[in-house]
Structures are given as C-alpha cells and as structure tokens.
Give the backbone structure.
Amino acid sequence: MRPKIAAGNWKMNGTAAALCELDALSRALPENPPQVVICPPSPLLFRATDAVHGCPIQIGAQDCHTEEAGAFTGDISATMIADTGATHVILGHSERRDTHCETDADVQAKARTAWTSGLTAIICIGESNAQREAGETLDIIGAQLDGSLPDDVTADNTVIAYEPIWAIGTGKVPSIAQITEVHDFIRSRLTTRFGTEIGNALPLLYGGSVKASNATEIFAVENVDGALVGGASLKADDFAPIVAALASA
Ligand SMILES: O=C(CO)COP(=O)(O)O
C-alpha cells in the first residue's frame, strides 16, 4: 500500500509571517491525514520545523547542491537541510531545470547526496507544451525518469512528481485521461527498471494547478498517490481542502 502524500511547494514566496499558515493547517487536518510535506523557502526551514513540532506535518526544502560542503556561494547542501529537521527535498523542478539549467544528471547526483543525509527526494519530471503538442510526452518523461533516478531508488528514499510544465501556475489542468496515461506509463517504466516490488511501491504525485475544485477527480486516478501543489499550498484555507480530498480518496 503506497502512502498518500500532499506536498506543498511554496517556491520563492513567504517570510516568517507566513509560518502562521502551518499552525492553521495543522488545526485543519482531517482525522486520519495523509502525509503532509510543506516546502518553504530555505531561510524559513529552521523556523518551519519548529512550527510543526508535535504535529503531523513534515518540512522539505526546494533544492540542494550535489556536494555536501564547499566553495559554492549561495547554495545549500542536503546536510544543512537535514540539520534544520527537514525530511524532504524537491529536486529537478522544471523551474530549476529551466532557470538554473539543471540536467537529469544533476538531479540524479542531488538525489544521491539527499539520501546520504537521510532526506527523501521528491524528483520532478514533466513535458513542455511544445513537447506535448509534438507528441513527445512519453518519450520525454521516459528519458527524464531514466536520467534523473539513481539505480538504488527505494520507496522510502524517493517520491516522483509528474508536473506538466504547461499546467504549472496556468490554471490549465490535463484531462483525467492524460494524467492517467502518463502516470500509468511512469508506473510501468518504474516496474520494468526497478522490479515490481520497488516499482509498485514508489509514490507518484501529480502537480500543476491542483486546487480544491479539481483535487477529488485527480486523486481518483489509480496511479496518483497525491499532489505537489504550488499556489494553492500557500494558504491553509486553500490547502486544507486538498489534504482532506486526499484523505478521503
Ligand atoms: O510547480 C508546482 C508545484 O511544484 C505547481 O504549481 P501550481 O500548483 O501553482 O500550478
């Protein structure tokens, strides 16, 4: 049985004042909540882990460097992230692949260093609009999976998030048939490469314009184990109904 995971990616949004949303979210959690992971900007990590102390919300970072320490001005390492009490790190988000030119090989190296520090890697993949229109979606997704996932992936150290780039922050959501097709494809690619035990145990999240209004039908898709949510994770009032939809999926 795979865990259900509601992850929130705050991206470059929020100052210390936003941490009150964690408290509000914890009070709004359903009785048997799914796993909830909030990924605030890195300056908030220490305070965020303090803020969720004693409640079932976990904290994650949005990126880490491939190295554990060294002369990399402006970067943060997996060791530092783990030191804050965070448990997860998002890797290979399309915004980083785009604006920081991250490659699949970079993502794979980052996953290894994340694991070394005991973090769970949330590895993001997804096609652009041009790639989808050219009929290349499954080729792109397959190549990103092959290149971004280390061989020794396990269901405990990795979560995969399918985020079509054209659905991120646009309000455009793929059809249920499109989400089903890609998630089924990812599942079969994983079982082929890692075997049925690991391949069937790895959680798969959908991300891109998830809101309370579309969450229930997305979570009903067989190979969707949760969501990676951007804009609608910033406010507890928006995110709590998504968490509740996942809890009852
Ligand atoms: O990029 C995302 C999460 O990582 C999705 O963002 P939105 O939910 O704002 O579309």
Summary: The longest helix spans residues 176-194.
